[in-house]
Amino acid sequence: MSYRNTSAKDAPLYGAPKPAKKQKSSREINSSNTLAFTSQLESLINSGTNTSSRSTTTSSRPRAKKEDIFASHNRNVKKRAARDLEDDSPAFDQKHSTSSEALDSSAWHRSKRKMEEKARLYAAMKRGDVSDENDTHLVDFDRKWADQQNKQLSDQSSSEDESDSDKEMVEWEDEFGRTRTGTAAQRAREQRLAQLGSEAAMRSRPDMPTNLIVGDTVQASAFNPDEPVAQQMADLAAKRDKSLTPPPDTHFDSTKEIRQKGVGFMQFSHDDQERKRQFGNLEMERAETERVRAEREKRLKDRKEEIEKRRNAIRQKQGKKQADDFLTGLGKELGAQPAKEEDTAVKESTQDS
Fold it and tell me: Coiled-coil stretches, from where to where (predicted)?
């Protein structure tokens, strides 16, 4: 057992050694101190011998007996208990209010902090870390511990007595009228099993019929062969006479599904007039969209045709220019070749001469 958490007051209870007292600081021993000590010792011895005869005749003063921790009680506990038992005690008056102000956060934190401090103090007192020599906290955990030990001992003794009584031999009569001998526990078990069997048999029995006929009774309508036919004819007539009313118009209710995130989603009204107006607006928007789309496609088509015309014109101009350049080059080549032939002929004639 650890003596670390025991207090100074509970040391005799748990057999823990008392805390050692602090020793006074040692003084230097010299001749003057020794002479003073011897003189004081001699005076005490002389005074003791003179008063020894008188001390034998007179009785010594009894010391104050230390109170037992198990016999001491809290102060004024009986007065508080009597005050609590009074009918007009204000401690038991319940005060209810329906218009109380909201609790401030600072007050709430302050109350929470105080309750935590109380919980820590109670846990420390329960462990024995806090010494309560002056009965300040009004909680005697030693008394609680002793009462708990006594209760456990009494429970153990009562359980032993019950076990002894269960082992006692007794006689009883079973459900078949036989006299049997055994322990009290066996008798209780047999009686419990018999009771459970009777309850199960009662539960498995069928219920009493409600249409049971008792006594002399003329059963005129006990057997009526035309009753099923009459019932079938009545059912056919009910189906024939039923008015052919069309089912009510029901529209799709998108509130029962999650379609708000769908593309092109629109919630239509359940009112017929409002629904028609919404459909009309949608048709108008669709017609306007188709008209704008057709105009845009027409503009794109006209632009493409104009671009194609310009390309054709450019191609024609480029082809005409290329043809002119080709003809010009060809003409230059053809004009240069006759002049060259004339020069060669002139040179040949000059050489012959």
Answer: none
Distance, in Å, from the CA atom of 7 to the CA atom of 18, rounded to the nearest integer, reads 10
C-alpha 119/C-alpha 127 separation (Å) is: 12
Domain containing 183 equals 163-201
342: in domain = no
Domain tally for the chain? 2
Residue 4, in any domain of the structure: no
Tokens of 82: 């009597």
Flag whether pLDDT at 182 surpasses 90. no
Domain assignment present for 39: no
Give the predicted TM-score (pTM) of the model.
0.24
Element (H, E) at 325: helix 272-352
Number of neighbours of residue 128 by Cβ within 10 angstroms: 20
pLDDT tens for 39-91 read 777 777 776 655 554 544 444 455 555 555 555 556 666 777 777 666 555 55
Please give the radius of gyration of the chain, using alpha carbons only, rounded to the nearest integer. 62
DSSP string, 83-143: HHHSTT-GGG-----SSPPPPPHHHHHHHHHHHHHHHHHHHHHHHT-S--TT--S---HHH
Percent of the chain with pLDDT over 90: 11
Output the pLDDT for position 292.
95
Cα separation, 117 vs 111, in Å, equals 10
Residue 255, judged by CB atoms within 10 A of its CB (0-12, 13-18, 19+), counts as: exposed
Residue type, 334: L
Q: Which residues pair with 170 in a beta bridge?
A: 182
Q: Count of CB atoms within 10 A of residue 254's CB?
A: 14
Tell me, what's the pLDDT at 297? 94
Residue 277 banded pLDDT, cuts 50, 70, 90: very high
DSSP string covering 188-250: HHHHHHHHHHHHHHHHHSPPPPTT---S----TTS--TTHHHHHHHHHHHHHHSS--PPPPP-
168: Cβ contacts below 8 Å, ≥ 6 apart: 183, 184
Give dist(CA 25, CA 27) in Å, integer: 6
